[in-house]
Structure formats: structure tokens, C-alpha cells
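Sequence, C-alpha cells quoted for completeness.
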Amino acid sequence: MNDEWILLVEDHSADLRLTLEAFAENGIGSSRIRVARNAQSALDWLATLPQRPLEHWPRLVLLDLNLPDRPGLEVLRTIKAAPPMSYLPVVVMSTSEAQPDVVAAHQLHVNLFLKKPTDWADFLRVTSLLRELFIDAARRPATPTGSLRL
């Protein structure tokens, strides 16, 4: 079974396609990315993590804020409030640059808040940096601790 390195929470088809293609150009194929098209799908999949060994947990959650069923901030709040899931690195990548969104995400302990790229070159650059930082270089606890309640 391939490890899914990234949980990509994105509902916009064009942004989803560009993000997947940019990650593929940077050596992360679609078999390494779990896609959730809405908040509930992301939360349902995250709820399965306690039954999996840590090496099968995503190394990154890439989260859009503007989701059809509920705000991405609710997904972030759920992740960061539930040890051991709170150890998951979460990067918000959103078209929103509104300060209330940026502040709220940081208050909820987002690891990074990025403006969503607007062209192919920027998608390539951002996905390359995300791969280098969160897949290649970052280290996480060897064993999750705490209880998980979603």
C-alpha cells in the first residue's frame, strides 16, 4: 500500500487539477495524494487515522478555506484540537487574503498560510517548496500520543 503523503482538501476543480499536476511535476504523483472535495470528506478520512500506523498518516494537510459544506477553518480547528492528530502539519492555501482569515488560521495553529497561486509557474514553485519542507525535510514524532476524538 502506498503511503498517502498529502491530504489535499480542495473543492474547486481547476485548482485541484493544477495542484495535482504541479505536485506530479515535483515527483509526487496522485497515488500519494488523498483528495477530499469538502470538509466532511476530509474529517471522515482523518477519523480513520487512529487505526493506521503513523507511517501511513499524511505528512501534510493542504487545506482550502472556502469549502462548500463548511469553512476550512472548522477542519483546521478539528485537526489542531485532537491529539495526536494535532501534530499533523496543516498548510492553508486560499484565495482569501483577508486578515480575519489569516489571524483565525494562526490562532488555530496553522503551520503556514499561503496565498493560492494564480498561474502555473507559481503552482510549481509552491508545490516544490511544500515538498522540500514537509515531505523531504520535516520530522514528526515517532509515535502519536494522546487520544483522538472527532
In short: The mean pLDDT is 90. Residues 120-137 form the longest helix (18 residues). The beta strands are 6-9, 33-36, 60-63, 90-94, 112-115. The helical segments are 13-25, 39-46, 72-80, 99-107, 120-137.
